[in-house]
UniProtKB/TrEMBL annotation:
It comes from the Eukaryota. Its EC number is 3.1.30.1. The keyword Signal applies. Belongs to the nuclease type I family. This is Aspergillus nuclease S1. GO terms for biological process: DNA catabolic process.
Length: 372
């Protein structure tokens, strides 16, 4: 088993417990990226990666409105986007790209429903990062932090950066495993929640002293299992942004559309039954994206809230060793190698062949008379 990130002591494991579930009885006209479980797992993974200074600042902003509920950090934006005062916010949770292009371009793709520039997930990450690093109090810092954590999770769901024509896979109806009973789901939902729920049911929904059947415990168990495979090398590789930026959503969006094309859309047709081969091959992608989202939320908050934060150095790239070229010159003659003298081979005596007796002629019977 891989070592957990340095500095995450035993107390960090306790921090992975889901602190609470915030439920809103509100209709959901839009699909949200990563369901509650996915966002909660991301927050569970991110919490122990915060420095002490960053964690204190996050807690101080949360305590003003959401005391002791770190899970809210990653789920709030999805739950509140349906309230009237946030009706403008749904476009901030996804990015539409041209069908089949499998590329992302900020100027081309970061547009709202009416073509407004910067109205998409990457634009929102830029905006709320700027609000948090601006010293003035003109912005609601708690709200900016909640939006930022939620949308940084969203942008790591590959189909949140999907094709405009199928709404990120939401209009592609498929059947999951043994559900060929008239109840279909969307390809978007498969990536958003179904694979996560399938994993919870298969591996973490057990009534044993280790695994309990409450939602909080299932999410905590799954979070711990994923965290055990998160290494300092992962943090060093995924955390830093090019040029020392506080956040780098264009990188995250590019990763997502490439993964969407290679893994989400690939080999899928409408009304197809997605079987275990699809589940197992895609599960590793989803687990990696959950870990990447957590690492990037934590390192972004560390850069914003902790002035003494130092990036974990990335592991050095091995330098390939080129063997020295052989010296060019005349090739010396090879001396003959003495060896044992072989005895002469006896001549092969001819084998006498007896004469073959002639074959006597076979008598031919006279032709039968013709019957009149």
């Amino acid at each position: 088993m891989a070592a957990s990130p340095a500095g995450a002591a035993a107390s960090s494991a306790a921090a992975l417990v889901v602190y609470g579930v915030l439920v809103l009885a509100v209709a959901a006209p839009f699909a949200s990226a990563w369901n509650y479980d996915g966002h909660a797992i991301i927050c569970n993974l991110a919490r122990p990666l915060l420095t002490a200074a960053a964690a204190a600042k996050v807690d101080s902003l949360l305590n003003s409105e959401f005391p002791h509920n770190f899970s809210t950090l990653c789920t709030w934006g999805d739950e509140f986007q349906y309230l009237p005062q946030y009706s403008w916010s749904p476009p901030l949770h996804f990015i539409n790209t041209p069908d089949k292009a499998c590329t992302y371009d900020y100027t081309r793709d970061c547009r709202g429903m009416f073509g407004q520039a910067n109205m998409c997930a990457s634009g929102a990450i830029n905006n709320y990062t700027t609000q948090l690093i601006t010293p003035s109090d003109t912005h609601n810092k708690t709200e900016a932090m909640l939006f930022l954590a939620n949308i940084m999770g969203d942008i790591h769901q590959p189909l949140r950066v999907g094709f405009a024509g199928d709404e990120g896979g939401d209009t592609i109806r498929v059947y999951w495993l043994n559900t060929m009973n008239g109840s279909s789901t969307s390809l978007f939902e498969v990536w958003d929640s179904v694979i996560i729920h399938e994993t919870e049911e298969r591996y973490f929904n057990k009534s044993t002293p280790t695994f309990n059947e409450t939602l909080t415990d299932i999410l905590g168990n799954m979070s711990l299992a994923i965290y055990a495979n998160l290494t300092t090398a992962d943090v060093a590789l995924w955390g830093p942004c090019p040029g020392g930026a506080k956040s780098c959503p264009d990188l995250y969006a590019t990763e997502s559309i490439e993964l969407a094309c290679k893994w989400a859309y690939a080999d899928v047709t409408p009304s197809q039954i997605l079987l275990d081969d699809y589940y197992y091959s895609r599960l590793t992608i989803i687990e990696t994206r959950l870990k990447q989202a957590a690492v990037r939320i934590a390192t972004t908050f560390n850069r914003i809230f902790d002035p003494n934060y130092i990036e974990v150095p990335a592991p050095p790239t091995p330098t390939p060793v080129t063997p020295p070229a052989p010296a060019v010159g005349p090739i010396p003659p090879v001396a003959p190698v003495p060896g044992p003298t072989l005895p002469p081979v006896s001549p092969v005596m001819p084998v006498p062949v007896p004469p073959v007796a002639p074959i006597p002629p076979v008598p031919v019977a006279p032709a039968a008379p013709t019957i009149p």
